[in-house]
Write a structure and sequence with these properties.
This protein is mainly alpha-helical. The protein has two domains: 94 residues, Arc Repressor Mutant, subunit A (Orthogonal Bundle); 140 residues, GntR ligand-binding domain-like (Four Helix Bundle (Hemerythrin (Met), subunit A)), CATH 1.20.120. The protein contains ten helices and four strands, in the order αααββββααααααα. The strands form two sheets. It has a two-stranded antiparallel ribbon with strand order 1-2. A two-stranded antiparallel sheet has the order 3-4. A hairpin with a 2-residue loop joins β3 and β4. The longest helix has 26 residues.
């Protein structure tokens, strides 16, 4: 084997490990709290002198371990609920084995909203009785961050973090997995364009008020109110996205 090629490969692996160690350390020490946006790929490439392909493999591994989430057109963020090492999905060439089935790619917004209406009100109901104090605190963090969001993309990130955190607070692994598939569909570029067209400043304020009522119901352990307010919120989101149904 060419020693130069071997040295280059070893250098790339070492650099990739350095990036992963840096990110994991910042998360574990609390320097980067849940929801923190990571440096951009371009910034990491420049700082570490790493190729885009190698960098993306490293980010995929962190995503598979549940330590970060990645969103098309928005970047990478610290996960709200990292998976235990034993539950991290297996990897093949840096890619998740559990990927969105081809038959679900391109699922319509109408289909997605139907499923969300089936799952999320019930999840909010369960969260009202099961959420821990730390989970309740994080829901408040999501609310505050959404209010401070600089643009639609930033608001949508915290909106998604809030909804996902409610799902996680329901403490049902199967539900969390199913919702992950929904978010994989919503993470496609056409969804970002749809949100850009439909999330006006007025609607954003309305969503924030609805989110506050949902979280308040969960915090007060009012399961019925949590169910009803989540359902009402999603009905309005569907109407704004698709028109009155």
């Amino acid at each position: 084997m060419d020693h130069n090629k071997m040295n280059s490969r070893q250098k790339a692996l070492t650099t990739a490990q350095s990036i992963m160690t840096m990110i994991e350390s910042n998360i574990e020490t609390g320097k980067w709290v849940p929801g923190t946006r990571l440096p951009t790929e371009r910034e990491l490439e420049t700082s570490y002198g790493i190729s885009r392909n190698t960098l993306r493999k490293s980010l995929k591994r962190l995503e598979a371990a549940g330590k970060i989430t990645r969103e098309v057109g928005r970047g990478a963020f610290v996960s709200s609920s990292p998976l235990p090492a034993s539950s991290a999905p297996s990897l093949v060439e840096g890619a998740l084995l559990l990927e969105l089935p081809a038959s679900l790619i391109g699922s319509s917004p109408a289909e997605v909203m139907e499923v969300r209406l089936m799952l999320e009100p019930r999840a909010a109901e369960l969260a009202a009785s099961r959420a821990s104090q730390s989970e309740l605190q994080y829901l408040s963090t999501c609310l505050e961050s959404a209010v401070d969001a600089r643009d639609v993309a930033d608001f949508e990130h915290w909106d998604a973090m809030l909804h996902r955190s409610i799902i996680e607070a329901a403490r049902n692994d199967l539900l969390t997995h199913l919702y992950g598939m929904i978010n994989s569909i919503r993470n496609q570029p056409e969804w970002a364009k749809l949100k850009e067209r439909t999330v006006t400043a007025e609607r954003r304020r309305g969503y924030q008020e609805q989110h506050l009522r949902i979280v308040s119901a969960i915090r007060e352990r009012n399961a019925r109110e949590a169910y009803e307010t989540m359902r009402g919120h999603l009905l309005e989101v569907r109407s704004n996205l698709l028109g009155t149904i």
